[in-house]
Every structure is written in C-alpha cells, then in structure tokens.
## 1
Amino acid sequence: MEDIKYYTTQSKAQIHDAMTPLIKSMYSEFKEISKKKPESAVSKNKIKIANRLLERVRIVLADEDTIEFLDLLDEDDIPQASDVTLILSQYVASMEAFHIKYFGWDGSKRTWYVK
C-alpha cells in the first residue's frame, strides 16, 4: 500500500472534479484564439466568465504553494488573448499538481485522499 502523505477535503475534491474539465476547455479555447491573434483584446464579458471560473478554482488551490502565482484577470486592463492563455495555463498546471498530490491508490482503488 502506498504511504499517503497529503490529504485534502471532500469539498475541494468535488470542486476539482467539477472545475477541471471547464478550466481545461477554457484554456484550450483561448490557446486557439491566441495562436491566430495573440494581441486581440478579450471582451469584458469573457473576462467576467473566466474570473468566475478562476475564483472557484482558487477555492481548491487556496492552501497550495502555487496560489501566490495565480492571478485573476483585470477587467479594467483589457488583457490580450495571449495574457489570458498564460494565466489559464498556470491554473491548469496547478490543478494537475493538486490531482497528483491528493489522488492515487489507497490499497484497493484509485481515489481522493480525504480526511
């Protein structure tokens, strides 16, 4: 049996499972936009949608070392697609690290390590 060193909460595990497909999809969409027009401005509406998702993801990552590097998008600054892509890539990487840290084999099945 694997020696489990880290535990998360059931709530964070559930939010992770719900938000990961959404953040990956959003990242993929912005990555495509960024390839075509990296300097294109992102609308305030898209920034609001992205920030709403990022705020939920931040709940999962609140106690992780990476949180200090994860910014929300500034609505007043009107970021470019390439800026949004960079920020989203950091969130995706942090969510993947969270999964690696708190999910694995408990001796009988693959599961979240929760207390």
Note: The longest strand covers residues 103-105.
## 2
Amino acid sequence: MVDADLSGSGFFRVAERNGVFWLVDPDGGRFLSKGVNTVRFDQDRIGGTERVPYADACRTKYGNLQIWRTAVSQRLASWEFNTVGCWSDELVASTGSRLLATAPITELGASFRLHRRDQIFPDVFDSEFWAHIRVSADQRCRHRHNDPGLLGTFVDNELYWSPDWRGTDELLTLFLNLPSHRPGRIAAISGLQAHYREFSQFNAVWRTRARSWEELGRIEHIVAPFVRLRPGALNDALETKANLEDPAREAFSADCDAFAAVVADKYFELCVSAIKAADPNHLVIGSRFGYQPLSGVIAAAGRHLDVVSFNCYDFDPGPVIDAYAATGKPCLISEFSFRGDDAGLPNSKGAGPRVATQTERAQAFEGYVVAALSKPNVIGYHWFEHADQPVQGRFDGEDSNFGTVTIDDQVYGELTEMMRKVNAAAERIHAAAVAAAI
C-alpha cells in the first residue's frame, strides 16, 4: 500500500499514521505481516522415529525440494500471505514470482538455558549469559544484516515468565532454587535482603526453615508460601482480592512481581543489544510470549523491543492485544490457530480452540483476524502452521489439525479461501482501526 508520507529505508521499519501502527516495507509502502509458520518440506517427524509423512507425500507429489518450494511460495502468495514465519525454510520466501518476507528466531535465551541444563529460565545475571548470547546473535544475525526481505528477528519462543500451563513456579522461586553458586540465586537473595533488611521480616512472609540470610543461601530447596494463578484479567482480579485478605500474600506477590520485572528488563536489554550489535538494520520483534505475562514484564518488553510479539490461542484476541497496547509499541501476533474435528486427526494435544468443521474453522479465522486488525497497535498475524501434524503425534505428542494443508499436501479449501479474502482486505480493515476503537 503506497503512502506518500512514508519513505523507504531499504529495510522494514515501523511507523504510526493517524493513530494506527504499520510496518513500512523497504520501499516505503505500508505493510501488515500476514504469515504462516513452519513452512518446510521436513515438517514434523513422528515422535520417536525418523519418519516424516509430509515430506514423503511431497516427494511423491513434487519430485524434489526445489519444485516444492516454488509451488508452496506461489500458493502462499495466492492466499495473500506475504511472510514466511518461524521455523520455516527461508528459501521458500525467494522462490516464487512474489518475494515474501522472512521472520526467523534466534532462541538466544533458550539456547543458554539448555547450555546450563539446570535452568528453566536463563540466568540473566550470569556473566556467561551475555557472552553466550553475543556470540549466538553474531552467528545467527550478522549474515542477514543487509537482507531487505528480513522483516525482523524473534528473540525466543514462549519462555517461562510466571505460572502457566507448565507449572506454578514464579521466576523468583526458580532463581532462589538454582544451585547456591549460580549468580541468579545470589541476585535473588540480595534483592530480598535489600528490600526486607531484617531476616525476620522476610521470613514472616516466606516462612522458610532458615534462621538467617546466610542459612537461606544454603537451603537446597525453598518452597513458595503461596501459589498464584496465571496472569490475565479474571485471574488478576482474584489475586487482588486474595492479597487484600492476606498481607503476607500481598507481600509475596509484590516480591515476585518486582523480581520478574528486573529479570525481564535485563533479559530484553541484553538480548536486544546483542542482536542490534550483529544486525543494526532490522527490527527486533519480540520473544513470542506464550501467554499474557505480568505487567512489569510487558513494560520491560516495551522499553527495549521494536515490536512486542505474542502467541494467542483464543477466539477473540482483543483483551490480550489491549494488555500489550500499554507498552505504546506495535504488536505482532506470532502464533494462532483453530483445529477442526472433521479432519480425521485426534486433536488430543495442541494449543487453542477446537471447532466441529472446516467451515467453522474458516469462520473462526475471519472473526479472529478482523478483531485483531481493528486494534491500532497490531501490525501482523502469523498462522500456526503450514501442514497438519502426524496422526501418531510429533516429537511432543501434538497430533492436531493446525494446517492450511493436510499431511498429504491437500489444500483446505474453505479455510484458505477465507484466508485469501481476509488477507486481501487487511489493510483496509486496519486503516479504520482508530474509528473502530473510539
């Protein structure tokens, strides 16, 4: 979409016009990122095996990888998608007659967490964290720094920020339970000590078996005195009520919130700095929040990122989008999907709503995207994912109808026709976002 008020910089950037955020393409045109994730020939091995049913089907259908790339690129463009999302074969983007943008992921924090092995969240206080992500970012980003087709770089995917579907731990308790020599544990205890001063004040809230700060540092496992609900509008109201009824719980919550905000600020500051040092030309488009985190984490993301990204598997993304609007930064929905129970797949494991039919699946896509585009801070949406998962389950057991195509590469006609229709109208819908929000 041409805009006489915008100018091309040779790379993607963000701009705000009449209260509405847009991406600006390298030539100066207004742009919304309409993407599909996991566009790859070798998508999804059957768990515990080397079998890749989608690749087997496409090898028979197309003959070789290059012909598949061209066919898929043309097909995505015909559905009015313009971005090849996370975990994709990036050569698909440049193979068809219309160039598609790419949006790769560096997994900086996740790679350090796996490197350390004893961490659920990367220890951002560890001096080796900065060294590790600087090298990783250089390896993964520097070669892209002159690429005009690169939309931006994701930092990580669905890190653990607070209680969610994976557990009830807080970041603070995770760091308090790192091995005693880890910098993150030392930082967590130091922060609590600076806040409470007297150990007795701390222990009146936390109720540990320790009798001093020194002894606390030696305890092998510190148990949280309270378990909080996952963040979100309804749960936040319940937590506020519980805190009003119990000053100790309120103090515990404040400790956890404050520490998470400090960790988030350090994480985003260091990761964005590492990526920008390797590639100063492109956007850093967030860490793909798996759920709405604490407000202090959202605020930290807004201070450092160019774009805040999040995965949202709801019928209506509006309330979640509104929570991120507080950052004042544009937002990208980096994952969403709907599963149809008529596709012949178990749909027994995987995120997001299930619907009865492919017709309802197409309607759910339309409702979701139109609702998202009516928000002035949204600059794109990426569907998860290109092809269905194996009926036997992939590496993590997911066995769902997430695809735009079947595992035999047969197109879901109703869904993709709706995608084409909505994608084609996206800029017009989004341009009216401010009026719709008033």
Note: The longest strand covers residues 331-336.
## 3
Amino acid sequence: MRLSELGGKEIIGLDTGERMGVIGDSDLVIDPQNGAIESILLSGGGFLGLGKKREDIVIPWSSIIKIGPDMIIIQLKPLENQTVQK
C-alpha cells in the first residue's frame, strides 16, 4: 500500500467506536534505518488552533487491526475476555 492511499482514511478506535482523526491530519513516525512505519501521531490541537485541545495520541503501527477502503480500525487497549462481534 502506498502512503498516498492512506491519506484520507479516518482512524476509528475499536475500544470506543470513536472517530479519532484522519491520517492526512496526522504524522507518521518512520524508522530511519529501515523505512518502516513505527507509529501514527495524532495531534491534540484544535482546528486552526481553535477548539478543544487534547493530548497528542501515539498509535503504534502494531495497534492497527484493519485498513479498509475508507477507514483504519485500531485497538489501543488489549482485549480482555471480550468477544468481538463480526
């Protein structure tokens, strides 16, 4: 998959079902030694510096559950005796 294909995808948290952001509005942390993506960094700032501020969120690449045509599903908290409905 090319980086340009990730650009407009929404990031959805499996834990809460909440929309966390868009890949195009985030930064990717890349390992300079091998070029692999290590994590996604979602900025905590509001739109154009306005709005509600939150902490920056670091999403390890290993937390990605599924990359679909429109969104990326992530799991930040490990599943503990939970069943996922499909």
Note: DSSP finds one helix and seven strands in the chain.
## 4
Amino acid sequence: MPRENVIGSAPEFAWRDGVPVRRAVLHGPVAIGPGKPQYVLARTGRQPRFAAGNDDVDVELLASAQFALLVVHDDDVREYACTEGEERARATARREGWTTVSVKGDWKTVLKERSDEEEPE
C-alpha cells in the first residue's frame, strides 16, 4: 500500500546533527472518535477500504471501512494490557464480524526498542 494512501497518527521529526530524530509528539491534527470517518472523507473524498483501531474511539472509523481490524492490547508482558477502553469496540467487532487480533496471541514481535526517539515532553 503506498504511503500516500495511508492516513493515521504520525510522529513529528526533528533534525539533530544532520540526523532525523523521532519526537514523542504527534504531527498534525488528530481526529478523535466520531470525527475520524469525516476526517478520512475530507482528506480522500471517499470512505476507507481498510481501517485498524484499538479503542472505543475507533468504532465509527471501523464501521465506515470495507474491512475493519480491531487490535486487542492484551499483552502486559511485552507491551501493556489496555483492554479497559475497548468494551464497545470489542462488542461491535463481535456483532459486525470485524477481524480482531490479540497482541498476546497473534503478534510475534511487539515494540522493538528504538534508539532514535526523544523522551516525551
């Protein structure tokens, strides 16, 4: 999938000694909750073919996509377990037949350590 066809959260970058360094802040406006499908439509002129999300604030975006993927954050050893904000998303995924993936059960690698990222501000 070409990068120009991807819309999502993206980090800011800074230059240090001629080298790009990933900053710990997001670039540009981030649409939250029900505003996500409208944001995609405004940017592309169409609804998404594929959408992935991991929280209740992603339900409307996932519902607007031809293919919806819900990521369940259930691995408190390699990442963090964060299923508390997913109740509505998980219930909707079951009802609508969305694909779900478990970080604990389906991912071989989780968040490899990055040496090129700044500390959060």
Note: The mean pLDDT is 84.
